């Protein structure tokens, strides 16, 4: 019975794929989008970057985040448009830096994000205003210097009205970013323009401006939901329904839960409720907070718009155990914080301990389950990113 169900689901997906293919415009344009979860630089990750800088001799002001994120570069760098979520403001290169609850992180992470292959980042989150407008301005200045696009916060009222539109393979793609506002550090009334607060009407107005400015595709990053829940909340589901019904947004990318939530089509539009963390080290790691996903979306031009195919790749933040100075690492443990492309690790396990291989397989199985938990395996056609792409 189970085998029959799998066969029927596979046939349904194949039929859906064939139907989409028949709509594709001959000779039409196409492009790929990679999007990943929260970039959340906790103090332990700053310490790791300092350790890596000593070993590599690279990095700015004694910090090198390159080795930490090198594992996802082969995927991110292949996308025509790669979108990150920069959760927090940045400080000055030499610090001081802060962790939860009022983050201030090294700007050196932005250089690494650019080197990994990210083109633009969403900046609207509940931590955007942790250190006020000064830090917002410093962060966007640093992103400009690193060559990263940004949307979701602004340095001036004039900038707040601008739409982040990029030319991607000859297609004008707009990127919008909205978030619920922090209760700890709300935006002052006189600076409300500096932060994009989540709301259907505000998003509809921004999309209308984007279309007026020539955007052919609009991608929305949204900071929403509840932390540490693998299922989207009722408000998330309701907002996804409204956004996909009342706007023409072509793709919704969710963040904030710090764990993976489903990807599904809502009213014909792909919604990734949460892609988990791209990189983070929570004070109490749960295992789930280290698992994430890279969403991979292929846009193909049709006679009436765009056909979007969705795939994903599982990631995992390897966390070393806490040991006293001079003690040996437990068998199978890792020594450094590293973001792992789980597909590659499972495919080529040479040198991996049995414990690490089992951990990667668990991450792959759990992530698949959470992503498919709202039916994306069948008619929606969500697939794992093919290994051949590497």
Look at the structure and give the CATH class.
Answer: Alpha Beta
Number of strands: 15
Globular, elongated, flat, extended or rod-shaped: what is the shape?
A: globular
Please tell me the overall pLDDT: 92
Q: Helical proportion?
A: 25-40%
CATH superfamily: Metallo-dependent phosphatases
Number of structural units classed as domains: 1
Determine the CATH topology.
Purple Acid Phosphatase, chain A, domain 2
CATH architecture: 4-Layer Sandwich
Identify low-pLDDT runs.
1-22
For the sheet with most strands, the description reads: 9 strands, mixed
What is shown here, in short?
This protein is of the alpha/beta class. It has helices spanning 2-23, 43-56, 66-69, 73-76, 108-116, 132-146, 157-160, 200-212, 234-246, 342-347, 354-371, 376-380, and strands at 30-39, 81-86, 120-122, 149-151, 164-168, 171-179, 217-223, 251-255, 263-266, 269-272, 277-279, 291-301, 306-318, 338-341, 383-384. It has one domain (31-322, 329-389): Metallo-dependent phosphatases (Purple Acid Phosphatase, chain A, domain 2).
């Amino acid at each position: 019975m189970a085998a029959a169900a799998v066969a029927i689901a596979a046939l349904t997906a194949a039929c859906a794929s064939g139907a989409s293919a028949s709509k594709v415009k001959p000779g039409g344009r196409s492009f790929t989008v990679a999007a990943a979860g929260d970039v959340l630089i906790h103090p332990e990750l700053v310490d790791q970057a300092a350790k890596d800088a000593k070993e590599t001799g690279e990095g700015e002001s004694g910090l090198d985040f390159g080795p930490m994120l090198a594992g996802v570069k082969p995927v991110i760098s292949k996308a025509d448009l790669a979108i990150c979520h920069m959760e927090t403001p940045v400080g000055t290169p030499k610090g001081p830096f802060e962790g939860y609850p009022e983050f201030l992180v090294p700007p050196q992470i932005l250089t690494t994000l650019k080197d990994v292959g990210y083109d633009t980042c969403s900046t609207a989150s509940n931590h955007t205003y942790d250190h006020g407008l000064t830090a917002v301005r410093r962060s966007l200045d640093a992103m400009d210097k690193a060559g990263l696009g940004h949307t979701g916060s602004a340095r001036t009222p004039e900038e707040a009205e601008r739409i982040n539109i990029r030319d991607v393979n000859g297609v004008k793609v707009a990127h919008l970013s909205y978030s619920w506002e922090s209760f700890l550090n709300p935006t002052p009334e006189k600076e409300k323009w500096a932060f994009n607060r989540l709301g259907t009407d505000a998003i509809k107005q921004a999309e209308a401006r984007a279309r007026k400015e020539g955007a052919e595709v609009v991608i929305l990053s949204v900071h929403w939901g509840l932390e540490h829940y693998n299922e989207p909340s009722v408000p998330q589901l309701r907002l996804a329904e409204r956004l996909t019904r009342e706007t023409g947004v072509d793709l919704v990318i969710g963040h904030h839960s710090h764990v993976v939530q489903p990807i599904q089509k809502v009213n014909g539009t792909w919604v990734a409720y949460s892609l988990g963390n791209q990189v983070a080290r929570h004070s109490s790691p749960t295992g789930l907070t280290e698992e994430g996903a890279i969403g991979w979306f292929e846009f193909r031009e049709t006679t009436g718009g765009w056909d979007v195919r969705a795939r994903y790749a599982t990631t995992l933040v390897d966390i070393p155990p806490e040991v006293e100075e001079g003690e040996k690492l437990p068998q199978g443990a890792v020594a450094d914080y590293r973001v792992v492309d789980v597909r590659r690790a499972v495919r080529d396990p040479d040198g991996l301990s049995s414990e690490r291989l089992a951990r990667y397989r668990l991450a792959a199985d759990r992530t698949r389950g959470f992503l498919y938990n709202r039916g994306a395996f069948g008619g929606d056609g969500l697939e794992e990113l093919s290994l051949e792409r590497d």
